[in-house]
Predict the structure.
Amino acid sequence: MTFIDSVVDKTTVPDIDLPDVKVAVQKTVPIDPNSYTLLDENGQPATKVPAKDPKGNVIGEYTLEVVDGKAVGVLTQIQLTMEK
């Protein structure tokens, strides 16, 4: 999972002294980590979603937690039993 903690807006504005020259102004807007929502396979909000291996087998579940002010995806693996 990948989370971002801010949005960067690069706006081009004219330079006051040289109106023909455009200067990029970068603004960073923080995102409230409590505003993140975990989505299920159908794009619906969920408190947990299944974690699957490449074959589609469920191997655990993902949940979303806020740790030290940042949104963190947490994988809890299920205990698999070995067949004899």
About this structure: The CA atoms of residues 48 and 63 lie 5 Å apart.
